Amino acid sequence: MRIGVIGTGNIGSMLAGALVRSKAARPKAISVFNRTESKARELAARYPGLRVCASAEQAVRRSDTVFLCVKPLQLFPLLQSLNGFWHPEQLAVSVTSPVRIDQLEKIIPCHTARAVPSIVNQTLAGNTLVTFGTTLTDFQKYKLWHLLGNFSHPIEIDEAYIRIASDLSSCGPAFLSFFLEKMILDATRVTQISRKTATELATQMTIGFGKLLEEETYTLPKLREKVTVKGGVTGAGLSVLDKEYGALFEHLFEATQKKFVEDHQAIDPSFDRID
Question: How far apart are the C-alpha atoms of 11 and 19, rounded to whole Å?
């Protein structure tokens, strides 16, 4: 399979790297394009054999499956510029959650899908959120699922739940890193432990925590039960968390939903003009 990656920012670079490291594709089978060519060249230097294209059109011509890894407001202009370069049997895959499948199908004259990755995919783990276009056959769906399955756990997500699913899967690492960093900083404020030691302890704890979940050793409630001794220190800490977290996550998800609506308000008019 010949793969194109248009946009080599954080997501595009991560995706190309995951494809290579998982052996889902050889570097010479991947064509990349970025508006700032030096970024594409840097990526190619990390993965020798990767082909750097002079234009987005060239990346489309060289590929069977094209991942569109640009920011939401950049996607419509990009797709306009690519009009006339697609062939019917290609697959265009957007990584942009605010753009719906029906909007992609309005402007792209080939098969379409959406695949929202997560930064943790670069460890060949985590989910990729998948929404299939209406023209894909079962075999084409299988091919994309298998490709993504080399470096992640694909999960099919209905259009109605793409934002909350992205919050948990794609934004989740940023949210968790915020809380871990706060835990580390406050540990150094309350005690004399060094930032270096606190960071190492929290990092290794998080790695082990992830392995417990991966191996399905415990459910989340069971894990808390196993760590908590009646009348012990963990219980005292959990009591504080239970009292003070309040509506934090409710407000967090309300904010992301609001931003999602704002994104649609900025993006939808461009697609709505298409007959």
Answer: 12
Q: Which domains does the chain have, with CATH numbers?
A: 3-161 (3.40.50.720), 172-244 (1.10.3730.10)
Q: With beta carbons less than 8 A apart as the criterion, state whether 25 and 97 touch.
A: no
Phi, psi of 103 (to 5 degrees): -70, -40
Which amino acid is present at 130? V
Dihedrals φ, ψ of 107, to 5°? -115, -20
pLDDT (0 to 100) of residue 121: 96
* pTM metric for this prediction: 0.92
Residues of the chain with pLDDT under 70: 275
| CA atoms 119, 124, 127, 133: torsion sign | positive
> Are 91 and 112 in contact, with CB atoms under 8 Å apart?
yes
Structure tokens at 2: 């010949």
Lateral strand order in the sheet of 111-116:
51-52, 30-33, 3-6, 65-68, 91-94, 111-116, 127-132, 153-156
State phi, psi for 13 to the nearest 5 degrees. -65, -45
Reported as a single tens digit per residue, the pLDDT across 43-86 is 999 999 999 999 999 999 999 999 999 999 999 999 999 999 99
Do 264 and 98 meet the contact criterion of CB atoms below 8 Å apart?
A: yes
- CA 91 – CA 112 distance, rounded (Å): 5
Which pLDDT value is given to residue 274? 83
The predicted pLDDT at position 135 comes to 96
CA–CA distances in Å: residue 202 to residues 168, 183, 228: 21, 8, 18
Give the closest residue to 128 by CA, choosing from 83, 162, 92, 80: 162
Comparing CA positions, the residue from 142, 54, 128 lying closest to residue 91 is 142
Is the CB of residue 143 less than 8 Å from the CB of residue 1? yes
